[in-house]
Design brief:
The complex is a heterodimer of chains A (181) and B (259). Chain A is α/β, with parallel strands linked by helices. Chain A has helices at 15-21, 34-37, 65-78, 100-109, 122-125, 127-137; strands spanning 40-45, 50-55, 82-87, 111-112, 151-155, 163-168, 174-178. With 259 residues, chain B is mainly alpha-helical. Chain B has helices at residues 4-22, 31-59, 65-70, 101-122, 128-156, 160-173, 185-192, 203-216, 239-253. Chain B is globular, with a radius of gyration of 18 Å. The chains are: A alpha/beta (181), B mainly alpha (259).
Chain lengths: 181, 259
């Protein structure tokens, strides 16, 4: 399987910025940094101490976006930078951008990571196919606690927009599943 | 700006159903569904924000996402009438508190099916901003559709009571979907500019997908026809003003409030 990681490449001139941003985590999933989530799309120096940061929302109604915006601003300003944070919509954020390392972190945090890529063949993604055959597209979800695949969806929507609620039929623990998006 | 009205129509659809479904927050039939409907509303209101922000830029002047959402009256809203209706069927509701989840599910199903097909096409709009919003919204509305589809099958293929209620909700709401297929002048203008789509091009797939699910759910497709609503032209039912009255009250009471 080809694992496509689309974490933006780190350029030398922006190293200091990326290092500062590395301390910032997703307010709702503190196990992952903003970089690992793929929320920071672009860092550009426009002067010696002036920088533009492009971020992209995960879900369109994600209430954490303003917090993320403020966190970036205050962190970089405290380090003496002049910052502009822009929101970028395209390309739309996808869980395909989560690195394998990020998925491992999610699992140890108790969240089952997305079990498939979203950028499948377009025929599978077509709405007609999607609704008629969605059960066949969906693979079983692994329990992050005992790694059993014998799990059951309790609710397609969970504690945050990006998660579904599952329970494990072997260890009987409930858990969150990070939905492929 | 030929497509300001078009973007506003899409935004109004999202916010009105988002606000309507948010009524379940704290009132859900079971905890999981309470959470599901709150999530569904969060997505729709998020989509509405992206669209209102864009519409405000197209309009220019002092327009903002907030002025468009909170400081327009019912006749300026361009949402489908379907989306503003209360959560009860035509004969069972006496008060807003009479909530019937089958009405909620049937409406979400009919609308999400349309939006999955519409966002899919709008991803290729000549307007790159609208295309970007479409690509994001599509991912979310697919989950809404699957949620509504699964519950509709459970209701239709469930008990006598759940089947009867789902059928009643379907008979009640189906005539309102006729509005999907009649082009408003702003839709024609957006279509001619390669920005919008002709919804009539979606009708075949929509009818086929809806038919599939109704079959699976042992529900009868209601006969066509009935009164043709024109919510997107600003001619609404009596229910929209009450919905807006609640939604806009805080912003209007504190017009310069910032929080």
């Amino acid at each position: 399987m080809v694992i496509r990681t689309q974490v933006p490449a780190i350029h030398h001139s922006t190293n200091e910025i990326w290092n500062l941003l590395e301390g910032l985590t997703d307010p709702e999933i503190p196990a992952l940094t903003l970089r690992e989530m793929g929320i920071i799309r672009h860092v550009e120096m426009i002067g010696k101490r002036q920088v533009i940061i492009a971020i992209t929302p995960t879900y369109s109604g994600c209430p954490a976006m303003e917090q993320i915006h403020d966190d970036i601003l205050s962190t970089l300003e405290a380090a003496g930078f002049q910052v502009e944070v822009r929101t970028q919509l395209a390309p739309a954020w996808t869980t395909d951008w989560l690195t394998e390392q990020a998925k491992d972190k999610l699992k140890s945090y108790g969240i089952s990571p997305p079990n498939r890529l979203c950028s499948g063949p377009s025929s599978v993604e077509h709405p007609m196919y999607f609704l008629r055959y969605s059960k066949e597209v969906e693979k079983s979800v692994q329990c992050p606690h005992c790694s059993s695949n014998n799990t059951l969806e309790s609710s397609r929507f969970g504690s945050t927009a990006c998660k579904a609620l599952y329970k494990c039929l072997d260890c009987t623990e409930p858990f969150d599943y990070f939905k492929p998006y | 700006m030929p497509h300001f009205a078009y973007v506003l129509h899409l935004a109004d659809n999202c916010i009105i159903l988002g606000q309507r479904n948010a009524q379940w927050c704290g009132n859900g039939p079971i905890l999981e569904e309470d959470i599901a409907m709150a999530n569904n509303s969060l997505d729709l209101i998020g989509q509405a924000r992206m669209l209102y922000q864009y519409a405000a830029e197209l309009k220019g002047g002092l327009a903002t996402e907030d002025s468009l959402a909170y400081f327009r009256d019912a006749h300026d809203f361009k949402n489908y009438t379907l989306l503003e209706l209360p959560h009860y069927g035509p004969l069972v509701g006496y008060a807003v508190e009479n909530l019937d989840y089958s009405v909620t599910i049937v409406r979400n199903f009919l609308f999400s099916t349309l939006m999955v097909l519409m966002w899919e096409k709008l991803q290729h709009s000549k307007d790159t901003r609208l295309a970007a919003i479409a690509a994001k919204s599509l991912k979310e509305v697919r989950y809404h559709l699957r949620h509504a589809h699964d519950w509709l099958v459970r209701f239709g293929d469930g008990t006598h009571e759940s089947q009867a209620r789902a059928q009643a909700a379907l008979n009640h709401l189906m005539p309102y979907t006729q509005e999907f297929w009649i082009q408003a002048p702003f839709e024609t203008a957006a279509y001619n500019a390669n920005i919008g789509i002709d919804t009539l091009d979606l009708k075949k797939d929509w009818t086929s997908l809806v038919g599939d699910t109704l079959n699976e759910a042992n529900l009868m497709t209601p006969p066509g026809g009935g009164y043709l609503t024109s919510g997107k032209l600003g001619l609404h039912s009596e229910h929209l003003s009450y919905l807006l009255g609640e939604m806009q009250s805080i912003a209007r009471a504190h017009p310069d409030g910032v929080w």
